[in-house]
Every structure is written in structure tokens, then in C-alpha cells.
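Recap from last week: sequence in, structure out.
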Amino acid sequence: MISAMTLKAIAKNLINLLYPRYCESCKKSMAADSAAPVCVSCAGRIKKNAHAQSESKDAGRHFTIARSACIYEGILKELIHSFKYKGKITLAEALSSYMIEAASSDEALTCGINAVTFVPMQDNLISKRDYNHSQVLAGRIARALGLPLVDVLKKIRRTRPQNELSREERLTNLIGAFGIRDKRQTAGLKVLLIDDVMTTGATFDECAKILMENGAKEVRCLALSRGI
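Predicted C-alpha cells:
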């Protein structure tokens, strides 16, 4: 009689044969039942932000603090690009896990937070990509923290992509670009604002400004990665 362990091994080998999986970065073969998007070797090269980047109102910001889970370079940069521009929404689970880990160990970021929201996208980009990557990440973080996800911000003016601009241009590109859907969703609340990449903090700041002007009590921010 074939043991259950043997049958399991046979099934696994059959799955690997019929549905081979490859590392999103180095393209080496991986087990078909692996939940990770990259192999162990590549995962080890993703740099977590050991010294969590923090910005504050002391620097003239509208948010209280802003953290980032990882450094925007190398393999992580490749994964974010695939997630945002190549429709690989399945990467959300792995990418959000870095943010959840960072949020869960940072009391200053999450203590007293009442709701989670996200940086909105232009309607034409959502139609093109089928989803807002920041919303997908925010949804997973909200579930992990046991908090409601609110779709409260909206993009009201088309802007040039931040990654195409100089630092000086980034700081002014988004002024007046965001609006509010229903301020009742966040009025009086402490809100955690989510995005994928933070460089100058201009996007977070402009969104936080709109939230605060419409009654939010406090805005804290968390990005998947920090641009160097």
C-alpha cells in the first residue's frame, strides 16, 4: 500500500511538471506549491528598512509620521514594477507581508488608528491597469490590523508621474491634485495612509493635507518602500 506521504510527493511532482513556477527575479525553477514570488536566495537580497524612515509635522508636514518597510532597489524594485505595471496582482500577498510586519512591530505607527486608506489613482490609469496597487496593499493591511478600509480620497487633477520628475518638481506636482469623496468616512479619526513608494513624501503630504482639512484627527503613513 502506498503511504499518504508517498502519494503527496507524487502529487507534488506532478504539479511541478504540469504547472512549473519560476522565481520572479532570477527565473530559476521553484516548487509549484510555493507561495513566495521569488526563491529563497532572491528573497534574502530584499533590504528591509532597519532604520524605519520617519518624517513628521516638525518638518512642516501634514502627517504625523511616515514609515517605509523596505528599500526601493534591486529585487524589490523589480517586484513592485511587475505588480504595478504588468498586472501581477498575485504579488500583493508577498509585498504586503513586509508592510504588515513593519506595522505590527511599530506601536507609534498603529496605536489608536481607526481606519486605513490609500493614495488614489487617476481614473484612466485604473482602467488601464484594472486595479489600484495601493488599494490592494491597503486592503490586506487593513485586514491584518482588524481595521476598516475606506476609499475616501480621489484624484481630481491629472499629473505627471512622480518618478519622471526632479525632487523640486515632485514637491509641487501634486498640489491641488487630490480631493475627498465623503469626509464623514474619516472625520474625527486617526487614519493610516498607504502607498507603495515614498521618495520626497510629497504624495503622502498632499493626501494628508486633504484628510486633515476634511476633519481627520491625525494621519500616519506607511509605504512599502523608500526611494534612495
